[in-house]
Amino acid sequence: MTEAEASRRSGEGDSARAAVLRGMTVEDVPAVLVVERATFPADAWSEGMLRGELADQPRTRHYVVALVAGEIVGYAGLAAAADQADVQTIAVVAEHQGAGIGGLLLNELLAEASRRGAGSVFLEVRADNPQARGVYDHFGFEKVGIRARYYEDGTDAIMMMRKLGDSNG
Ligand SMILES: CC(C)(COP(=O)(O)OP(=O)(O)OC[C@H]1O[C@@H](n2cnc3c(N)ncnc32)[C@H](O)[C@@H]1OP(=O)(O)O)[C@@H](O)C(=O)NCCC(=O)NCCS
Fold first, then answer.
1. According to DSSP H, which parts of 5-164 are helical?
2. Lowest pLDDT segment from 19-33, 86-100, 126-140, 153-167
3. Sheet holding 61-68, edge to edge
4. Residue 124 alpha carbon, nearest atom of ligand 1
5. Domain residue spans in the chain?
6. Angle at CA 27, nearest 5°, toward 25 and 29?
7. What b/e string do you get for 86-121 counting C-beta neighbours within 10 Å, with b at 16 or more?
8. What is the spatial distance between Cα 105 and Cα 65, in angstroms, rounded to a whole number?
9. Which of 20, 25, 27, 115 gives a 20 to 30 Å CA spacing to 67?
10. Domain 7-163: which topology?
11. Which atom from ligand 1 is nearest to the alpha carbon of 169?
12. What span, in angstroms and rounded, lies between the C-alpha atoms of 11 and 153?
């Protein structure tokens, strides 16, 4: 897969941190699953689901990991087909949230969607996840619908969409 690299230095938190993005490979699966299970205790993806996604790279998928001091602290994945793309997942470990890493990951997915010619990017977010909804609002995503009781515990999914234009910021 195409190596996606970007870096950003953030002054937030106790100390400035540098995060680097690169493409996710099957070698990353164990470390990604640790983050996945810690971040989504109620509905973590299985190893098989994650491997299935990676098997579709680069054809319809683009997955990246965020590294701080060589350790995986976050990841995100995009599905793209024709002129539409979907954010499949995005997560940053709790200790590194709020430091710009989620934004770095999201920008990379938006840039990849643009590179692949998508005109819009969709995602679903739990109605009871104001933090993520705030981040998506901030990135220009708009609510386009609700999937009632979409999640196993009966929580609604909010569907959001962002059109891709001149800038991905
Ligand atoms: C959602 C998540 C990926 C965001 O990652 P993060 O590293 O904490 O986000 P960032 O610090 O990069 O913030 C991204 C931007 O959103 C802004 N933002 C953050 N929280 C916000 C809020 N509640 N409302 C509005 N804007 C917000 C930040 O200011 C930042 O903007 P900037 O880059 O212009 O300064 C992360 O919190 C996470 O993993 N949460 C748990 C898993 C989850 O809910 N995943 C999404 C499932 S749909």
1. 29-39, 47-55, 101-115, 130-138
2. 153-167
3. 7-10, 17-23, 61-68, 71-81, 84-92, 120-126, 157-163, 142-147
4. 48
5. 7-163
6. 85
7. bbbbbbbbeebbebbbbbbbbbbbbbbbbebebeeb
8. 8
9. 115
10. Aminopeptidase (3.40.630)
11. 34
12. 38
* Placement of tokens 């950003």 in the chain: 8
Query: What is the rounded distance in angstroms from the CA atom of residue 108 to the CA atom of residue 125?
Result: 19
pLDDT at 107: 97
**By the 8 A CB rule, do 111 and 102 touch?**
no
Atom in ligand 1 nearest the alpha carbon of residue 96: 7
pTM listed for this prediction = 0.90
Choose one of 12, 35, 39, 135 to mutate for the ligand 1 pocket test, by most ligand atoms within 8 angstroms of C-beta.
135
| Phi–psi pair at 59, nearest 5 degrees | -55, -60
Instruction: For ligand 1, atom 14, name the residue with the nearest CA.
Output: 103
CB 54 within 8 A of CB 95: no
